[in-house]
Design goal:
The structure holds three protein chains of three kinds.
Chain A: E1 4-10, E2 13-19, H1 25-32, E3 51-54, E4 57-60, E5 73-75, H2 88-95, H3 105-118, H4 124-130, H5 142-158
Helix pairs in contact in A: 2-5
Chain B: E1 2-5, E2 19-22, H1 27-37, H2 42-47, E3 49-53, E4 56-58, E5 72-76
Parallel strand pairs in B: 1-5
Antiparallel strand pairs in B: 1-2, 3-4, 3-5
Chain C: H1 23-28, E1 43-49, E2 55-61, H2 63-66, E3 71-75, H3 86-95, E4 100-101, E5 107-113, H4 116-125, E6 127-132, H5 139-143, E7 167-175, H6 178-184, E8 187-195, E9 207-212, E10 218-222, H7 227-238, E11 245-249, H8 265-275, E12 279-282, H9 285-291, E13 297-306, E14 312-322, H10 331-338, E15 347-354, H11 369-387, H12 391-398, H13 417-426, H14 428-431, E16 438-447, E17 454-460, E18 466-470, H15 478-490, E19 497-501, H16 518-545, E20 552-555, E21 558-561, E22 572-573, H17 574-578, E23 589-594, E24 602-612, E25 619-629, H18 636-655, E26 686-691, H19 713-725, H20 736-747
Parallel strand pairs in C: 1-12, 10-11, 14-15, 18-19, 25-26
Antiparallel strand pairs in C: 1-5, 2-4, 2-6, 3-5, 7-15, 8-13, 9-10, 9-12, 13-14, 16-24, 17-18, 17-23, 20-21, 21-22, 24-25
Helix pairs in contact in C: 7-8, 10-11, 11-19, 15-16, 18-19
The chains are: A alpha+beta, B alpha+beta, C alpha+beta.
């Protein structure tokens, strides 16, 4: 099958790639662009481990085709720190031990960041429902929710 | 001699006894004695056993010491997740 | 001088909560998991799987696949070693079917190609002819006289005569006279319970990258709980020498027992050998559900007699475990754990390991214990309800303690069950008011924990920092715990220690990260390795001072003369001893290898409040408290994490999760949409209480913590729901339809 040429931006950098029309955005990120931060946990949009933003909107990259990325701005976990300065969520996740195995962490960070951009003062319930599309099997979500709530509080104070 | 308690599934293999007396100062020697004196238990030992010595579960080590008055109990070998 | 740093109090580093060493990698996406590795010239593989529950494989025709552009190799069972026996044969037969496909999803062939898409297309082009055979997927049906025989001769010597050939292992133990005990009781309750098979549900599918040459040398990268076990099994299946295969454990995206064995690794290696290229093989989620190792489903009968004062007079349990198409259902552990929390004069337990046409079960966090606790603790709860007794009083009255006889034979050493019960009873949760529609349940749980073969190596650097090489993959933060324990012995900051999971060529043998053994066994070995380095550091100081090495002791990172007789020497800091170590006797390292056999058993008590919606039958866990004996919490935050994670998995098992098979023997719900694990909005915060009753078998008192946390939840939640709806719930999961049925049965 002939491949399609696609131009997009990933974490602010211009990228070009050739992809099979059947390849997902997740396949492209991982196999063509070498960005393995987004993970494939299910391939069916149920686990959220592949969460990225597309033009600022939270999506499961396993549910979007690579060719659909044409002209889009993609954000992945590799792009959320500012140089050597971690995003507040990244710092809090380490501080709170909000990860055990860490496979779900990239997706949860992207999803949580997306939440805080829309809603800087979420309730616990709002955090839980926003993250309901991101499965974590290790933590019981307890420390994840606390880390997100505390990050939100800290970012509100800082702004 | 050390008394080795058997789980009840093994008792029919040794004439209904709930424990057997064997020689041995280590777990390995005890298992060797069982194998020698009670060949009917050999397939069970081959399938894997753990030995509880004075409340301590010895999962696989054969060199653990066993005293004359130790409480020794055979268990199926444990595995975890 | 043998240094002994054993202690249970006055820790400087142990018990603190520093950041984990792999934290930065994991929040930036840098951490490399199973599917994140690549190699030059790498091929991608896909596995052809049986769509049938039970079928004879008549013919495999790969000619169309091999004719496709980009396809480099196809393998079937003929490409693996012959003559294997025992469990290694079982695992190979599961990895790649021989003459018969034994379950829906059983691998029958595999293909490697230049892209994942081509591999998938080629896999579909492989043609397999089957002759269908009768199948059975239910444990009770598989034991019935008319059940199809899955494999004749699979039973071992433990099975008494007269049982169906699908019963492949049998366990029976107990003491006293249960009939006499039941006769003494004021109330005897006997009930039947079932649980469904569940999956460990790790978010990372099995993945590996293998290279094997015609010279019999290989490299394998994979996500696993135990890479020496992978090395041993793969080498046997490919007919190569064990040491010629170097296995590196990737970061592991969850395991919970499911990654203690292998499913795809030998397939990648066989394809690599045939194609002479590296081969990457990653399971899809559907493959993980259909063809990795879920836990057993169970059918259980429990009978307990109690006096009106709460004394248990006798207890009897029969536990039937469905273990898939191979022996291994943990019937003995189910039976042994069942009554472990109780001091019983009369007790009898029986376990059956039963084969069915389902995937080969694998360990899942305290294999067998959660199901047994569900049955036993439900009956105890019902006895308490009917006799009007307080569930804590009854449990405390009958609790196992040091010196009482365990239900499976031996006398207990120092254990912490009573301490967890007392801490749970004192917790504000227990006396908090319940709302309309809510019920409260409690349960105890027990797990053995394990030691196992362990090697650890520690190397000092010239600047006085240290690196530790351990061989137990880090599933939940264990590198942090190792560094804390080494810091405690060496007397150097936690941050000055780097802990690495060594590959199989860089360290001696290590058993799998299972049985909650890592912090116990690798921790003990780390402490001993650090002590060995400290002894050498003391020798170097003694040489510098020209005094006997016995006259030097180690304190807080310094070698010090042990008294006035040793001379007046200023303490030497570790950095002063390592800076010139090359010139004072050579590199300073410490290592330790042993099979430590002092793993302390662990008990927990959980309290849960559940709220049932009478309209829909849906249950919501509204409050949850875990109280567990950790022996000593090295990094308390990660201990809490284990407690919370086990509780959450238990909530899923109790309420939602189940393998659903159709009449055709095919798995109906092989995906996270239909196999629903708990999501963030399903759960409350999970409160934790760490009880510390030190384990005398570990220098700092550590007991394993990872598994015990999943033992009480099924029962505690079932008791809470039963108390909320006023009907005893005997089947898991308590999906809404079952709860509605229960409510209707009460109304009717």
């Amino acid at each position: 099958m002939s491949k399609t040429h696609v131009t997009a931006k990933v974490n602010g950098d211009a990228v070009e790639f050739l992809c099979d029309p059947r390849e997902t955005l997740l396949d492209v990120l991982r196999d063509r662009l070498g960005l393995t931060g987004a993970k494939e946990g299910c391939g069916t949009g149920d686990c959220g481990a592949c969460s990225v933003t597309v033009d600022g909107r939270l999506v499961c990259s396993c549910l979007m085709l690579g060719v659909e990325a044409e002209g889009k701005e993609i954000g992945t976990v590799e792009g959320i720190a500012d140089g050597e300065t971690l995003h507040p969520l990244q710092k809090k996740f380490i501080e709170y031990a909000a990860l055990q195995c860490g496979i779900c962490t990239p997706g949860i960070l992207i999803a949580a960041k997306s939440l805080l951009e829309k809603n800087p003062d979420p309730t616990e319930t709002e955090v839980r429902y926003w993250l309901a599309g991101n499965l974590c099997r290790c933590t019981g979500y307890d420390k994840i929710i606390r880390a997100v709530m505390d990050t939100a509080a800290e970012m509100r104070e800082a702004s | 001699m050390v008394d080795v308690a058997l789980w009840s599934g093994l008792r029919p293999l040794v004439g209904g006894q709930d424990s057997i007396a064997v020689e041995g100062r280590t777990v390995g020697q005890i298992l060797d004695s069982i194998r020698r004196n009670y060949p009917a238990l050999a397939p069970t030992l081959d399938a894997g056993v753990s030995v509880v010595v004075d409340g301590r579960v010895i999962a696989s080590s054969l060199t653990e010491p066993v005293g004359e008055n130790s409480e020794v109990v055979l268990m199926m070998r444990l595995k975890g997740g | 001088m043998a240094l002994d740093s054993s202690k249970t109090t006055d820790f400087k580093y142990v018990g603190t909560r520093p950041d984990r060493p792999d934290g930065l990698d994991k929040v930036t996406g840098r951490a490399k998991f199973g599917a994140d590795a690549t190699a030059p010239g790498m091929l991608f593989a896909a596995i052809k799987r049986s769509p049938h529950a039970h079928a004879k494989i008549l013919k495999i025709d790969a000619s169309k696949a091999l004719a496709m552009d980009g396809v480099k190799a196809v393998v079937t069972r003929a490409d693996f070693a012959e003559g294997l026996t025992g469990e290694t044969w079982n695992v190979l037969e599961n990895v790649m079917a021989g003459e018969t496909a034994l379950y829906d999803g059983h691998a029958v062939a595999a293909v490697a190609a230049t892209s994942a898409l081509i591999a998938r297309d080629a896999m579909k082009a492989i043609e397999v002819e089957y002759e269908l055979l009768p199948h059975v997927t239910d444990v009770d049906k598989a034991m019935a006289a008319d059940a199809p025989v899955i494999r004749a001769g699979a039973a071992d010597a433990s099975v008494p005569e007269g049982l169906h050939p699908n019963v492949v292992r049998y366990y029976e133990s107990g003491h006293g006279d249960v009939e006499a005990g039941f006769a003494e009781a004021d109330l005897v309750i006997e009930d039947h319970f079932t649980t469904e098979a569940t999956h460990q549900g790790y978010i990372e599918p099995h993945a590996c990258l293998g290279t094997l040459g015609a010279d019999g040398k290989g490299e394998l990268w994979c996500c696993t709980q135990g890479h020496w076990n992978v090395q041993k099994l793969c080498a046997a299946m490919l007919g190569i020498e064990t040491s010629q295969l170097r296995v590196t454990a990737s970061e592991i995206g969850g395991g919970f027992g499911g990654k203690t064995t292998i499913f795809i690794e030998p397939v990648a290696l066989a394809l690599s050998r045939k194609a002479n290229r590296p081969v990457k093989l990653v399971m899809t989620r559907a493959e993980v559900f259909r063809a990795s190792g879920p836990t057993s489903s169970t059918s259980m009968d429990v009978k307990i007699g109690m006096k009106s004062d709460g004394t248990i007079t006798a207890a009897q349990g029969t536990f039937r475990l469905q273990g898939g198409a191979f022996p291994g259902g943990p019937c003995e552990m189910t039976a042994m754990c069942a009554f472990a929390p109780y001091n019983l004069t009369n007790v009898h337990q029986v376990g059956y390991d039963v084969m069915t046409n389902r995937p080969k079960q694998a360990a899942y966090r305290a294999p067998g214990s959660p199901m047994a606790a569900f049955a036993v603790e439900s009956v105890i709860d019902e006895l308490c309800n009917q006799l009007g007794l307080d569930p804590f009083e009854v449990r405390l009255k009958n609790a196992s303690r040091e010196g009482t006889r365990a239900s499976f034979g031996p006398k207990w050493p120092r254990i912490g069950l009573v301490e967890t019960l007392e801490a749970a009873r004192a917790h504000p949760h227990y006396t908090a008011p319940l709302k309309e529609g809510q019920g409260r349940g409690i349960s105890c749980g027990f797990w053995f924990n394990h030691g196992g073969e362990t090697s650890v190596s520690l190397a000092m650097s010239e600047d006085g920092s240290a690196q530790i090489m351990v061989g137990t993959p880090d599933i939940g933060g264990s590198r942090a715990s190792m560094a804390l324990m080494a810091a405690e012995v060496l007397g150097i900051p936690y941050e000055n220690i780097r802990c690495t999971i060594a590959d199989t060529s860089s360290l001696g043998y290590n058993e799998i990260s299972h049985g909650s053994r890592v912090t116990y066994a690798s921790g003990l070995a780390t402490i001993k390795a650090a002590e060995a380095a400290v002894e050498e550091l003391c020798r170097r100081a003694a040489a510098k001072w020209d005094i006997p090495e016995e006259a030097v002791y180690w304190e807080d990172g310094y070698a010090k003369p042990s008294g006035p007789n040793a001379g007046d020497h200023a303490p030497l800091h570790i950095t002063e001893l390592t800076a010139d170590m090359g010139a004072t006797g050579g590199p300073i390292n410490g290592h330790f290898e042993a099979t430590p056999e002092g793993a302390g058993v662990s008990f927990a008590t959980h309290i849960v409040d559940a709220e049932v919606d009478p309209e829909t039958g849906a249950t919501k866990v509204v409050r949850y408290t875990v109280v567990q004996d950790a022996g000593k919490a090295i990094h308390p935050t990660y201990v809490e994490g284990q407690f919370q994670g086990g509780a959450a998995q238990g909530i899923g098992w109790a309420l939602n999760e189940e393998y659903i098979y159709g009449e055709d023997g095919r798995l109906q719900n092989a995906g996270f949409l239909d196999y629903r694990i708990p999501v963030a909005s399903d759960l409350p915060f999970i409160d934790t209480v760490i009880v510390e009753v030190p384990n005398p078998g570990h220098p700092f008192g550590v007991r394993g913590v990872g598994e015990t946390s999943i033992c009480p939840p099924l029962a505690a939640i079932a008791n809470a729901v039963s108390n909320a709806v006023g009907v005893r719930m005997r089947q898991l999961p308590m999906r809404p339809s079952r709860v509605l049925e229960a409510l209707e049965s009460k109304d009717g």
